[in-house]
Structures are given as C-alpha cells and as structure tokens.
Amino acid sequence: MKQKKINIAIVGLGNVGSNLYKHLIKNKKNIQKKTNVDIVIKYVSAKNRSKKRKIFIPKNKWLNNYLDASKNPKIDLVIELIGGSDGPAKKLVFNSIKNKKHVVTANKALISKYGDELSKLAEKNRVNLEFEAAVAGGIPIIRSIKEGLITNKINKIYGVLNGTSNYILSKMSNSDNNFEEVLNDAKKLGYAESNPSNDISGEDSKSKIQILSALSFNSFINREHINVEGIKNIDKHDIKNAKTLGYTIKHLAIAELKKNKLIQRVHPCFVSRGSYISKINGVLNAVIIEGKPIGKFTIQGEGAGPGPTTSALVSDICSILRGKIKLPFSIPNKNRKKIKSTGIDQETYSSYIRLDVTDKTGVLSQITKTLSKNKISVKRLIQNPFKSKKFSSIIIISHKAKNSNLIKTINELSKKNFIINKPKFFRIEEI
Amino acid sequence: MKQKKINIAIVGLGNVGSNLYKHLIKNKKNIQKKTNVDIVIKYVSAKNRSKKRKIFIPKNKWLNNYLDASKNPKIDLVIELIGGSDGPAKKLVFNSIKNKKHVVTANKALISKYGDELSKLAEKNRVNLEFEAAVAGGIPIIRSIKEGLITNKINKIYGVLNGTSNYILSKMSNSDNNFEEVLNDAKKLGYAESNPSNDISGEDSKSKIQILSALSFNSFINREHINVEGIKNIDKHDIKNAKTLGYTIKHLAIAELKKNKLIQRVHPCFVSRGSYISKINGVLNAVIIEGKPIGKFTIQGEGAGPGPTTSALVSDICSILRGKIKLPFSIPNKNRKKIKSTGIDQETYSSYIRLDVTDKTGVLSQITKTLSKNKISVKRLIQNPFKSKKFSSIIIISHKAKNSNLIKTINELSKKNFIINKPKFFRIEEI
Questions:
Q1: CATH superfamily of A4-134
Q2: Closest approach of chain B CAs to the CA of A342, in angstroms?
Q3: Which of residues 10-29 of B touch A (CB under 8 A)?
C-alpha cells in the first residue's frame, strides 16, 4: 500500500496541546505502522507564544493567526484545543469544516452547543469531526457507543463525568474538611482549575451527558428540561451523615429514556456504599450503559489530564488517518431523531433531607405536618443535637415521592422560623 | 452515497448463532442507517438442522454443506460460530479467507492457536478477520485496544476473563457450598456448559489472554512459558479463610512486560477485598489496562451469553460493512514483534499456604524448618483445629518469595507423613 501524508495544525498549546505535540513527534513511526499515514505537525498556534513549554517548536511552525489553520491549503486536519463554546474555538472549528478540513476537538462546551450544526456541515463537506476527548478523558466511551455497541438499544447512560467534582467529594469523604478547604487544596494540586465554576456547578457534566445522550439515543442534542445541580451545597455534615446511613455522595450525570421521553439530569446523588459507582474515587470517571443486547456495560479511567486526553485525541486522529469518513454522530443527520424530553417534576425519588433547627417544642410536629401535607412519607428520621445543645439537625430519609412535591416541601420548610440554615436536599439513586 | 449490499452466511446456530440471526433481521434498517449497507443473511448452516430453535429460517437459506459458505461466490462474509480450535471451524475460516471472504468469529481457541497464520492470510488476501466476540463477551475490549488506545504503550493487561469460573467462585463465596455442588448448580442454570473443563482448567482464559497480549504488545501470539492453573483446587475452607484474612479469591489472567520480557499467567489469586477486581462477581468479566498516556483503564460487562456475544459480533460485522480493511492485529504482520517471554519461576509472590495436618508434637517445627530452608519467610500463621480435634489446618501467609521456591516448598511439604490433604497454595496479587 502506498503511504499517504497528512498535515495537521494544533491550535491551543496548554498542558494538553503541548503533551499531544510531544506524543505525536515521539509516536510518528508507531502511527505510520498502524495507519499507513505519515503524520506531519505542519503548524501550531497559541494565545501566548512565549509561554514556557517543555517542548521545542521550530519557529517556522508558528502561525501568525490561529484562524490561518482553517484557511491554509496545506493543512488537512485541525486540532482545536482552545476551549469555550464560543469565540475563537467556534470560529476555528466552523471555518475549518467549511474549508473542508477534518477537525478533532476536546471541546465539550462547543460540541454540546453547536454539535448538531457542525455535524451537518461536516456531513455536507465530507470531512470528519471527532470529539472523543470531550467526554471522560481517555476513556474511549464515544468510540464504544458508536462502534463497540453499534445497534444496541441503549435505554440509560450515566456516570461520573467531572473529575474535579469527584476529586472534591472523594477528598471530603476521606477527611473532615469542608468544601472550600478541599477546593483550595485541589487548586494547589492542579486537580481544579483556577476558575472551576463550570466543574463545580455541573455545567461541564451537563455538556458531556448531552453529547453522550445524543450518541446513545441516535438523536439531536437535547438542551431542554435538563436538571442541573452542582456540589457547592454539600457540606461535611452531609458527607458524614451519608456515611452513617450507608451511602456515599456522588455527583452523577444521568440520561434515560422513559416512555419514549428523554430525561437528563446532573446532580449530587446518595448512592449505596456497596455500589460500583460509590468506589469511583478521585479524578476517575466512569460511564455505565444499560442496553440490549449488551446488558450492563461499564467503562472507567482517568477523566482528565494531559495523558488521558492525549490518548483520546490520538485515537481520533488515527481514526481519521485510517480514512473512510465517519459521521460525527454515527448516523446521517437526516436519520437522527428530534427526541422528546421531559423534566423531573413528575419523577419520584427517595431523598435525604437535612434540617438544622432551633431546639424547641413543636418543631418536629410542624415538620412532619409539612411533609405529610405534601405526600412525603418518612422512612427514617434521626435527630442529632448540636454541640451547643440549643440547635439540632434533623435528618430525614424519605420514601419515594414526586420531585415537585419534594422541592415544594423544601421551599416551605426553608421559610419556617425554626430553620437556622438553608435545608439540604439530595436525591437517593438506586444504582 | 449509493447503498451497497453484502451477503453473509452464519455457520453454527446454537444459542449465540440463533440470537445473532434474530438480531440481524430485526436491526436490518438500523444497520443500513449506520453503515449504508444492506445486510442479507443469504445462508445458514448448523450441525443439527432439525434442532428446535426460536427462529424461523426459510428452507432456501440452508447450505447443504457448511464448507459451501467458504466457496459460494455469493457470500461476502462468513460468520463462524462452530467453536473449537481445529476441525470444521479451522477448515471453514482458513478456506473462507483463502477464498477472499471476510470472516467474523467468536472462536478464542482458533484465534489463539492459528491467529497469526490467519492474520497473515487475511492481510495477503485483503479481507477482514474480526474476533471481538472471542474475548470478554460483549465488552469491546479488542476494539478499545486497537482503536481507542491506539499508540498507547501498554505494559500490563489483566482481568477476569472466564464467566463460568467467576460465577462458581462468586457463588462459593456467598454460600457454604463446595466446588462440585456449585458447579452442578451452575450447569442446571446454564452458567456452565455440560462439559466445562476448558473454563474450569483455565484453558479458556489462557486463549483469551494470549489474544489480548498480542494486541496490547503489538506482537505475535506467544504460547511459551504460560503458567495455567484452574479453580478445581479451591475448596470452601480456602474461600472462608480468604474472607477471614481480608481477601477474595479471583481467577485472573495476567500479561505483562517486565524488562522487555512477556510474562503470561492464569491462576487463582488472593486479592484484597477492597480492590476493584474483588467486586467483579457472577458472570461479569473485567479487563484492566495499564499504559501510557492513558493511565489505568478499566472495562467491565457481561462476559458471555447470547446477548453480549451478539453485541460484539454485530460490532465486528458493522466494522466490516463500513469498509476499509483493518488488519486483524492492528498492524501489518511484518511489523509485529516476536516478543521474548519468560516463565514465573524467578518472579516473587506473597502466598497463601494451607496445610491440613495431624495434630502432634513437632509438626509446626518441621513445617517452619522446610519453609526457612527454602527462604520462605512467614508473615502470618494461624492454626485452627478440626472439629474432630485430631487434625488441624495451618494457614500461612508468606512474604514475597521466588515462585520456584514456593513450589519446591509445597512439593516437599506434601510428602511429609503428617500432611493429610494435598497442601493448598495460592498467590496473593497486589492489585
């Protein structure tokens, strides 16, 4: 077979971009063997050219303007590592595909927002758009759904999709530290970005589950009705209570089909301490798929960092090098469904409710009255006095109840004058 | 894009073959959407044509002779589900590839024995030979190594690869039953074949780890020096002792590179009860890969059964339908290495040793003398009297020692006149 040559441009040279650069240089021959293609890093671009990097980049490889990567006729494949759903990343990827260049990106925000448009454009222009690195770091979850599980009828996909949140929760669970303390440590250690708001708030997991959902259910990306809650409200007492009650708190992203409607949600969950997902600690990510005929399928690995992300990027690059255009979402856009979705209002959940109250007569009676009025029945109730003795913490495990009723109850209770802290409410997930 | 058509033949219509037949008929349109190919089951063949099956097969689809599948010019792709490393399966697959037909097989015995020859033949004839279903049921482990982890430098791959053995060990662990009782139950429930000797002896796991090893290390299949032990020797007392000591017994297959030499082994292992692998229960399979840059990567799912196997077969079929010949072992055969291997004689392991002895003076002293002579140092020793009081069980957890010394010690001890049952010896695996 005659060997081909492909010219690529890497745009964005942070930790991931630099690591990819090094890996591609080092594995040039390896890639040749596996794809029969000679890969050449023709150009690079970065916001800050003079930033200190551990790689040597010859001067003639630098583009004057990052957008030249999408225009330069010598470039076949553009690797976008800028990040962000809009701005330069959006411009670069749209223009590259318009100019019939293949694109590999690790940008979940971009794909979850513009993935459908980009997919149509890529299909029209017969180029590849690959984004394995956008979800779950090095774990080949997208490739597994598109190829390994092809023709499976998936009805649920869920998991731990954000390494930072998971690292913080794991650390809180193994220490007596509170959220802010652990977050500060995580920043120092490089497990959280200096601005981790997208990770903490659940926005990052939301983008990821939307992408997985579209792939799993052969649908367009659905951005409606998605319930997103972050981990900020979890404090060390909740962590401790969860343990005492036999649970672990995990921040999960879940997408499932129920009566042909899509339900997507991202929120902290109480999961049984014996469950598989409760053992996914630190920066690990895990994705679980329930489908037919495969049954239950699980995939786990490091969810972020230069190494794992490089692994995913290279799998995308090599998939393109091997030729044969693959559609970004596996099937032609005309065959993708516009799936109906619904919120979680009518869904039922068991839940953990924590009420910090002033310790006086009649409080318990008022609480149970509110619960009962809203059709919340109590499975377990524990009252623990504070050290000061004037206050106490009431922990309730509820039986399954409608989400709307649970929220209404919490809102009503939070207005009571005996409540001294914002009530805590977390759903219990039976997985 | 113009739609293509492909004619396939399914040879072997047991549980898996019948399930695949049904699935392909049901998913014809689905497959068309994802591959742009119209898949037609042109012919089928089975040893016993009149066997009761839950599928309807039109008369004109039956081949008179199974080998016709490899000769009939109308057939593009042959699916071999006969099983066995030699005999009809071998004939069918070799002839099909010789006649330039693509082949999909679930046959680990065949691939581990003739995979290299077949791979060369397939490369020469420019046809696909795919065998995702041969290892770990529905888990897309082969695809993950070949594509998802492409260019990763893997240094270790291991896991639970035999559902029957794992089911038996899990059941023994959850009951007070012995090996034979559990095996009989497993047969009744369909979790063990009527002749499960390949599963129980480790032969099945051996074939699988050899295949994974060749894929992970870009080498030819290595059949030398491989240490294989089955699960027959594990009795309920060992299971119970393991529990007491904080371990679970798992039957693992392990391949790793140490100082550029390949070490492959299949044997029961004591693993820490907190470890990930200790939770892989029932018919589950799991594979763990350690590599760079991915880090530690884990994949888990049902290891056998018609559903998962069909999922894997269809992923192979669709990969072929999508076109572009992929090499069976990912790289051209000329680039595959002949990797050097070594046995485990010089490797060191901690171990569990159980000695059932007559309870008389001097026994312990003779045992410790034998251990010390062979440089085995004791980390923990527990002596439990039998109910009858005349005998007792001595359990030793040894520090790390050379495998050859451990084996020598066991052999020497087994000849002592105070030993009443064959001594038990299992390695402790720190994973």
A1: NAD(P)-binding Rossmann-like Domain (3.40.50.720)
A2: 25
A3: 19, 23, 27
